[in-house]
Specification:
Shape: rod-shaped
Largest sheet: 5 strands, mixed, barrel
Strand order of the largest sheet: 1-2-3-5-4
Distance between the termini: 158 Å
Strand content: 35-45%
């Protein structure tokens, strides 16, 4: 009686296990525990008293090393329920059969394939001796600059079309990558904080910068201004699509989820030593990187640029004639005029080729701009109230109409054409050294006084004309000079 009852219980248990086993369907993802590992297959407990089998090759890594042991948990997909439950973590390209390809398609199971060659619109993929097609847009999550880079690679794909008994198979690698990205996105975002140094892959390159995938499909912008300390004119010279680079997280906007990245911040800022190595008055060699309407940018060293403003060039009378002196790419000697460490700005002026200033043998011309100095400048422009005269790079003075020494009804523009030399006397310089008042009339007065002094000292004049007014003597001297 007891034995009969025990037999009934055993039968009920077996029946229950059998029912549970049949409840598993193809394509279902199950969690199980490895019970035993044999030479070819491993047995997996998938619940109840039912067991499933999985190919031992699927428990090994790319180097052929077994990654699991008895008692380990494993997640896999049901590929077949005929004659028992068969599981798979991925369909191995070398072991797969045409039937398994169909099962993988139904179960949405990843399959391994080798990219054989490029064909029109995509690639030919070999999976289990069968030919499959992967569209160009489905080979990767990003578009690579060189499509041939994938040829010969072994990737994991998902079968997205299976027709004509396996004669028409279309696969996608991108689908799996995007699934992985979505799964990892939340974890990746937790690691993206200002100051973090991360490795990412360049997704695309634009004129304004590059988008970098930091993992999980999370992208940040590497702006052109943060690519290098030197001026970057072509972003493609710095990074390329598909390239793996290390970047620093600069900012994270929680509201918009925008991430700003930097590349130059991983190296020392060259401006950190400008204050100790550059001085006003120095003459340094520089290279013109670009020319704008207001001046020329000059690279003094990588990451340190100065600006030669248009006003630092002596006027010639021709519009924008200064640009001919500093074409992009030219190298020359430039004098340091100003240094602003806070704004990271350096003002420079081109030193004339062959000048003693190139060798640092003479002081800057502007050092002689003091009240009473007699200088020669170039006419820069005309205004209703006077004439502006270029004296030195960045130093322009004003000669009021009353100090031009010409009659009220005279044509000042014709008398002092733009670009012509004019001799002046410095009347006044303000404390900043930038507002300078000049006089041509003072030069003429000084010349007249000199003529009178010379006339008074001439003994022959004194003897021939002992009498007469000072005015008569001055007129005589001027007449003698004009003859």
């Amino acid at each position: 009686m007891g034995e009969q009852k025990e037999d009934v219980e055993d039968f009920a248990a077996l029946f229950e296990a059998s029912v549970k086993a049949t409840q598993h369907r193809r394509g279902q993802t199950v969690d199980g525990t490895i019970v035993a590992i044999g030479p070819e297959v491993a047995f997996v407990d998938v619940g109840g008293k039912g067991e499933a089998v999985i190919d031992i090759a699927e428990l090994k890594n790319a180097d052929g090393v077994l990654e699991f042991k008895a008692g380990d948990a494993v997640q896999a997909t049901v590929t077949s329920t005929a004659g028992g439950i068969t599981l798979s973590r991925r369909l191995m390209r070398g072991a797969a059969t045409a039937r398994q390809l169909a099962d993988a398609f139904e179960a949405r199971l990843p399959v391994e394939g080798k990219v054989e060659r490029a064909v029109k619109g995509g690639y030919e993929i070999r999976i289990a001796g069968e030919r499959a097609f992967c569209p160009l847009s489905q080979i990767d999550a990003i578009r690579t600059a060189d499509p041939a880079i994938h040829i010969g690679r072994v990737y994991t794909f998902r079968i997205i079309e299976y027709k004509e008994g396996g004669k028409n198979v279309v696969v996608s690698r991108r689908a799996l990558l995007e699934e992985e990205q979505r799964a990892n996105a939340a974890e990746v975002r937790r690691s993206i904080v200002p100051g973090a140094v991360l490795t990412g892959r360049v997704v695309s390159v634009r004129d304004f910068g590059a988008f970098v995938d930091l993992g999980g499909g999370v992208q940040g912008l590497l702006h052109v201004s943060d690519m290098g300390w030197s001026h970057v004119s072509n972003t493609s010279n710095i990074v390329a699509a598909g390239e793996e680079i290390t970047v620093k997280v600069l900012r994270v906007d929680e509201a918009t989820q925008k991430i700003s990245l930097g590349l130059k911040q991983l190296s020392e800022d060259p401006w950190s030593h400008v204050g100790t190595t550059y001085e006003v008055g120095q003459v340094r060699t520089g290279r013109v990187t670009r020319v704008a309407e207001f001046g020329a940018f000059v690279e003094l060293e990588p990451g340190v640029e100065g600006l030669a403003h248009a006003s630092t060039f002596a006027p010639t009378g021709a519009r924008d004639d200064w640009k001919r002196q500093v074409p992009a790419g030219m190298s020359g000697a430039f004098e340091i005029l100003t240094i602003d460490l806070g704004q990271k700005r350096i003002g420079v002026a081109l030193v004339e080729e062959g000048s003693a200033r190139v060798r640092g043998m003479t002081p800057s011309p502007e050092s002689g701009i003091v009240p009473g100095a007699r200088l020669t400048g170039k006419v820069e422009r005309h205004e209703k109230f006077g004439v502006f005269v270029f004296l030195a790079p960045g130093r322009t003075g004003l000669m009021p109409l009353s100090e031009t020494g010409v009659a009220r009804d005279a044509d000042v523009v014709k008398t002092f054409p733009v670009g012509s030399d004019v001799e002046v006397v410095v009347l006044e310089v303000d404390s900043s050294g930038r507002r300078i008042r000049l006089s041509r009339k003072a030069v003429q007065d000084a010349q007249d006084a000199e003529e009178l002094r010379e006339y008074a000292e001439r003994s022959d004049v004194a003897q021939s004309k002992p009498f007469g007014s000072l005015g008569d003597q001055l007129r005589g001297a001027l007449d003698a000079r004009n003859k």
